[in-house]
Every structure is written in C-alpha cells, then in structure tokens.
Design brief:
By secondary structure, the protein is α/β, with parallel strands linked by helices. The chain has a domain of 151 residues: Orthogonal Bundle (Isoleucyl-tRNA Synthetase, Domain 1), CATH 1.10.730.10. Helix content is 47%, strand content 15%. The protein is elongated. The relative contact order is 0.11. The structure holds 5'-O-[(L-methionyl)-sulphamoyl]adenosine. 5'-O-[(L-methionyl)-sulphamoyl]adenosine binds next to β2, α1, α7 and β15.
Length: 532
C-alpha cells in the first residue's frame, strides 16, 4: 500500500509469545515487515516499524511455572536473552518494541475495555467450549482433528496436534456478532484490506457464516496472569484481546493523540496465516466498536515448512536464526527468505537450497560483479570512475533494464510482492554480468585505441552498481552500505538519503569519483553446511 500523503508508513509484526526462543519462522515475519519499512524509508517517506512481545496468558504462565520461574521474570529473561537479540541477528531497524507487560500498554488496554463496556459492546455471560492453550483460542468442532499416538481417541487441535481443554466459564463477552455485516461491508468497500486474495476469500467465507460473540475475559479463579478487567477485578483480559491492542497502545492510544493520529491506521499489518482471522475479523471489529478505523491492510503470509509441516519449536523442528546468520550473515538470511519464497505462499526451507543460492546468486552473482567492476576501475583507470564516451545499443539496453527494474520493483512493493520486487532488481544483476561477459573489458584494455569504449563499459557497470546499492538496501543493508561506501566514497551523500524511486534514472554517479576498497561482500563458505 502506498502511504497517504503526510502520513508515515506504519507497519507492524505480530507480537511474539515469550514461551520460547525465536526460530526462523518468527524471523521470517520480522524480516518481511522490516524490508517493507526500509523500502518506504528509502523512498523518502516517514516509516515506522513496530514489533514486540506478547507476554500474558495461560501458555506463558504454564511455561514459566514449568521452568521454576514466575511469568514476569521468565518474560524479562526471554526478551533480553532472545527476542531483543533476534533484532540484531537479522538486522531489524524497528522504531519501537512493545511488551504487553508495560504500563503504557496495560493502562490503555483498560481504557479501551472501559470504553467498550460503557458503550454497551461488552456484557456478562457464560460459555462452554474447547480451548487450545497453544493457540490461546476457543475451538469449534471444525477446528479439531482425531489425535494420534499418545492422544489417539481424543480430539486435538489441528494446529498443535494436542488435546483441547473443556472450559465452562462465566465471563465477559464482546459483541462480535454485531459486526458480521459491518465487516462484510468493509471488506467489500476495501477489497485490498485482506491480502493475498486467497486469504481474503477464506476470511470472507468465514464471516459470511455469521460471527459469534467472543469471550474476552477469564476468571482469576483459573489463573491470573493478565490485565485486570477495569470494572471487575475478579477477571483478567483474554490474551488475544490484550495483545491485539498493542498496535495502538504502542503509538499513543489513550495518551498521545498527536502521535496516534500521525500513525493510525496502520498501512500494513504483516501476520502469519495462522493468525489472520484474529487480525482480519476480531481486530477490525474491536476498532469499529471503539469508533476507530481498521488498518489499511492485513497481509497473511505463508509458513516456513520443514518436512512438509509448519516449522515449530513445540514439534522440535525449530531452527534458530543464528544457526543461519553465523555462517551466511544477516544479509543472506534476509535475501534468501524474501527471494526464494513467494510472499503469501508456504515455502520449504533447506540448507542445500540456501547454500546453493548463496553461492550462485550472492557470491557469484552480486558479490563477484561488484568486486570485478571495482577491481577493473582500479586497474584500468587508477581507481577513478571514467566518464562514458558515448553509449551504444548494448549500453542503452542496460540503462533501460535499470530503469525498469527499479520501477517494477517499487510497484511490486506496493502489492507486498517482496519476492517479485527482489526478482525485478535482480534482472539488473544478471544483465550487468552478461554485459561484462559480452563487452570483455579485459580485452578492450589491451589496446589503447579502445580506451573510450572501455570508459563507457566501466562507467555503465559502476552506474549499475549505484542503482543496485540503493534498490537492494532495504533487503541487504550491510552489503549495500559497503558497496556504496566503496563506490562513491561519500561523494553523492549517504545511501540512506538516495530516493529509491529515482534510483533508476541513469547518470547520477559522477565521473571522476574515486572508488575505495571493497571488502568481499559474500565470502566463500568452505564449511559443509549439510545437515546443520
Ligand atoms: N502472540 C501471537 C500473536 C499476537 S499479535 C497481536 C502469536 N505469536 S507467535 O509467536 O506464535 O507467532 C508469531 C508469528 O510468527 C506469527 O505471524 C506466526 O505466523 C509466525 N510464525 C510462527 N511459525 C512460523 C513458521 N513456521 N513460518 C512462518 N511464520 C511462522 O501468534
């Protein structure tokens, strides 16, 4: 989604449960949101990325107690030892990190609840149903499957393959059923609200069947790790109702109107498809009840699969992001997951695929291109970018590729087609490599009579690298920063200040620029990564 004039691009990730340390499925959501945020920033728009942790609820309480800790101490430890370091590991440039145990959140969740209670959207009632603690959600019969192995003969949650618990409670309900028609109208009027299309269809079909009211509190007799219901302190707030509100409490809902107005509604809320209904049904209904606008868009991405199943710690298929970044680096992590998997579809992770793409696309494709071009400028022109001496058809073709690559990529980002955006920029990497092969600058260099032609060829490749540094900066911040520094030596300003949309316009790298040394961008990986 392009952001509205004057409003910052506001993108959110789900907030992560602190029952365990992050795996690459969590990192995948983070990276996608970060690439979108950085892309908009590189366009010169204001851009705000929010992420954080979801710390209340029975699941966290049980995990903490099971580990001989208290929920708050457990959450503190995991946030500091695992979730904040994750942001470094995968190079996330977030503007805020919210924890649901912070006063700025708890206080304003209560304000929101009180408002809905006062306006008649919350009432007291009783409920009996099957609850999955893994999902922190009541399940309908349709959500259950027959258990296997130790759970044979029992109904289990289709996501966690563990038994559900029968709960009967008197608690508070949100009148979600009132929003069946308003939501359907909203989806109709805002056809891009839920993306991708398949996700939208699934949600619309679900809402058409009619919504039931939602239990939004739990009695403290059962457990008490949550935010007190403001008018009845024998109840705490249902963890999802609490968690969804992070998207507004973090940006000033209830206490900083100006900040809130400058960011809400969010431009894109990135979520995994498993939690799409919470974000595309319950969350917009909560906002409507409070008289607030829903987000501009909710994007439900696919799952990283291992052995055909959603990667998860509870099924012991989790891979820690650092296992990958320690060997390949954060840029390769970001590039690989964003390029190899169509955003919105499921994708299987394999070490072999990662390793093969690293070698062919990053080390041999981009890395080699950059080092060859800079080495040739050093060798043949004393390290100074030569002025082009006219352009022939082949050169002009490269210019057209550059312009189109950037324009297509920029448009793809507005459709949240991150893989297409990178694929489009990559046409320039491939074409520049072909161009060098065809132009044979090393042959041209042997004859002084070809000096002008050599200058045009090397200018063209250097200028191509300028375009690539800018257009790939949101995906590979570290490598592009190195490349930019070596290529421009600060002569045309900081990389962060180069407007992405204009980067495909040819001729911005001034001839006469002295190039610097370039560290190897993607070092050869000698270790055998198989079976890591
Ligand atoms: N705490 C809730 C979200 C509350 S948002 C108001 C939650 N947390 S989670 O830690 O379980 O998951 C966070 C995100 O990680 C979700 O978007 C989920 O889809 C994503 N992933 C978890 N495993 C994943 C894969 N194997 N593959 C891709 N994404 C995955 O749900």
């Amino acid at each position: 989604m392009p952001s509205q004039a004057g409003k910052s691009f506001y993108v959110t990730t789900p907030i992560f449960y602190v029952n365990d340390a992050p795996h690459i499925g969590h990192a995948y959501t983070e990276v996608a949101a970060d690439v979108l945020a950085r892309w908009h920033r590189q366009r010169g728009e204001g851009s705000f990325l929010l992420t954080g942790t979801d710390e209340h609820g029975e699941k966290i309480l049980r995990t903490a107690v099971g580990n001989g800790s208290t929920p708050k101490a457990w959450a503190d430890q995991l946030v500091h030892d695992a979730w904040l370091p994750l942001l470094e590991t995968i190079d996330i440039d977030n503007q805020d990190f919210i924890r649901t145990t912070e006063p700025r959140h708890e206080k304003n969740v209560q304000k929101f609840l009180q408002h809905l209670y006062d306006t008649g959207f919350i009432y007291r009632g009783s409920y009996e149903g099957n609850y999955c603690v893994g999902c922190e959600e009541y399940k309908t019969e349709a959500d259950l499957i027959e258990g296997e192995g130790e759970y044979a003969g029992q109904d289990v949650c289709a996501i966690h393959t563990r038994p559900v618990e029968r709960l009967q409670e008197t608690n508070y309900f949100f009148k979600l059923s009132d929003f069946t028609q308003p939501l359907l109208d909203f989806y109709e009027q805002n056809p891009k609200f839920i993306q991708p299309e398949s996700a939208r269809n699934e949600v619309v079909a679900f809402v058409r069947r009619g919504l039931e009211d939602l239990s939004i509190s739990r009695s403290k007799e059962k457990f008490d790790w949550g935010i007190d219901i403001p008018w009845d302190d024998s109840h705490i707030t249902y963890v999802w109702f609490d968690a969804l509100l992070n998207y507004i409490t973090a940006i000033g809902y209830g206490e900083d109107e100006a900040k809130f107005e400058s960011l809400w509604p969010a431009s894109v809320q990135v979520v995994g498809k498993d939690i799409l209904r919470f974000h595309a049904v319950i969350w917009p209904a909560m906002l409507m009840a409070a008289g607030l606008k829903p987000a501009d868009q909710v994007f439900g991405h696919g799952w990283l699969l291992v052995g055909g199943e959603k990667m998860s710690k509870s099924k012991l298929t989790g891979i820690a992001p650092s296992q990958i970044t320690d060997t390949f680096g954060s840029d390769a992590f970001r590039y690989y997951f964003m390029k190899a998997i169509a955003f919105g579809s499921d994708g299987s992770f394999s070490w072999e695929d990662l390793s093969a793409r690293y070698q062919s696309e990053l080390a041999n494709g981009l890395g080699n291109l950059a080092s060859r071009v800079l080495a040739m400028i050093k060798r043949y022109f004393d390290g100074v970018v030569p002025a082009p001496a006219g352009y022939n058809e082949v050169d002009l073709a490269i210019q057209a590729v550059a312009e189109k690559a950037v324009a297509t990529a920029d448009a793809a980002i507005d459709e949240i087609a991150i893989h297409e955006a990178i694929g489009s920029v990559w046409t320039l990497v491939d074409e520049l490599n072909n161009y060098i092969t065809v132009s044979e600058p090393w042959v041209l260099a042997k004859d002084e009579a070809n000096r002008d032609r050599l200058a045009s060829v090397l200018y063209t490749t250097a200028e191509g690298l300028r375009v690539l540094s800018i257009a790939l900066a949101p995906v590979m911040p570290k490598a592009t920063a190195k490349l930019w520094a070596a290529l421009t030596e600060g002569k045309i300003g900081d990389l962060a200040d180069q407007p992405l949309a204009d980067s495909g316009r040819w001729g911005q790298l001034p001839a006469g620029t002295k190039v610097g040394d370039l560290d190897i961008l993607f070092p050869r990986i000698e270790t055998d990564v198989e079976g890591k």
